[in-house]
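User: Hi! I'm a student and our assignment asks us to look at how structure tokens line up with a sequence. Could you show me two examples?

Assistant: Happy to help. In each example below, the sequence comes first and the structure tokens follow. Example one:
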Amino acid sequence: MKKILLHVDLLIERYPALESCKDDILNAYYLLEESYANENKLLVAGNGGSAADSEHVVGELMKSFKLPRKLDKEFKSKLIQEDEELGLVLSKNLQGALPAIALDGHLALSTAYMNDCEPLLCFAQQVNGFGNAGDIFLGISTSGNSKNVLYAAVTAHAKGMKVIGLTGQKESKLSEIADVCIKVPETETYMIQELHLPVYHCLCLMLEDYFYGEIEDE
């Protein structure tokens, strides 16, 4: 755990303004750690720049960020048993993944739902379809009041999921709904987004260290 906490200390050393968020960053991490330890997943959503951040978060979790994330021997063996030639390539190149889905990227589903149903419920529909009890929904909203993110958060709680918010410093509807809300200390949209990136990078680094830091390179 000491090694995990070093990531937060380094974050605050580099971005002193985030000192006010330290407890919430740690609490968000603990929710994510527990969820992944129980083989659950993360759903992430946002709009505009926050949609790009959602994709960025998923990219850091679904493949190696800093550590090699080697597969365990048992899975490597199963791959080779399935097909010796193809399985050998897979066993050498696949990486461990922390399952995460960005809800902005499903173009056919999103446009179909927005055309046929209530557009603001598109993220909520995906949470309803993808989400299970024990999963986590991460809503990224600079204002904390994006309606489509709020609908998704309410749906997540109804599904038995935990909700993490990533917002600006103002109190918001998302900060009320979320189990943990990281409110970075800025009010201008672009400045909020500039602090969101190091926060979610820190969370991803801590998760990778916890789940893959002790795996030996085989």
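Example two works the same way, sequence first and then tokens:
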Amino acid sequence: MSTNRPRLVFFDSWVDSIAETMLRDRDDLELVKLDYATPEARNWQIMAGAHGYQVQARTELREPWFGDAALIARCPNLLAMSSTGAGYDYIDVDACTAAGVLVCNQGGTNTEAVAEHALGLMLALSKRIGLADKLLRRPGAAIDRYALQGNDIHGKTVGIIGIGTIGRRFAELCHGLFGMTVLACDPYLDADEIARRHGRKVDLGELLRSSDYVSVHCPRSKETLDMLGAAEFALMKPTAYFINTARGGIHDEEALAAALRERRIAGAGIDVFLKEPPPPDHPLLAFDNVLATPHTGGITEEALRQMAVSAAEQWIELLNGRAPPRIVNPEAWPDFSRRFAAIMGFAPERPAYA
């Protein structure tokens, strides 16, 4: 058994209090709640002794508490960080790997929520529900219901960029409910696996040219940052809609605004922005054919509870020396294992992949 009681820290709150309930009174770890309002020096003092750091979601997370190299340098006992949801772009994975710090996420816990949100945006755009609602609320607006003619999505083509856990569920809904043709661009999956996920493997160019709806479901990373810009939007049909429920920064917001302004695409459904929440004068919010939500795709009662439960279970496993699920950087395990043994006084169990 450990000679040290591991300390797990988090700021403000978990997305569901069930996690605190699960962890608060355990004998095998110390749960410490930090407050952004506390003097920074005091928070750093506590963080310096932390073994685990549950990182708050990007929208709520504040400087200087991002999971970057600067934070790692000031936390010599830190063994692991875990993101709140599936995304972990606010944690510097390379810096963690170099320091022997594991990075975990909660991939899969909000799959249904985000897939349904993307489907909702697609339906609302195609049926022009958002525009109709806005016109009904404008005093003196002329309402011509035939001018609000929309389209059925049945039998249309949807292009999915990244057909991982969420993209796969979105493809299942589109194919199964509406008989849609599913095209998928994903460099990490072969054609046979994509076919098992109800899609046909294509490159990005073909996907953009052929799809009536383009939906983004890939993580934000070095290879996907600004992946969709003016050249990519120029490939889309003028009748096509663009949807992003993944991460801000994957699409160039100015380029998307220009494509909408010049009517090169029919509209967009955006749940994620480079800066969140976006300011009221954000260019994309000025368009009637844009539906925008403040990164709420994964914010459902069911998803938040599952995120919290999964993270709590993950920490119990990890801080007790067992390989946790959903490790983002398994290549860090050898260095992590050596550091864990030196800090905690016993070696962690060797995972099958190490």
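Here is something you could point out in your write-up. The first helix runs from residue 18 to 23.
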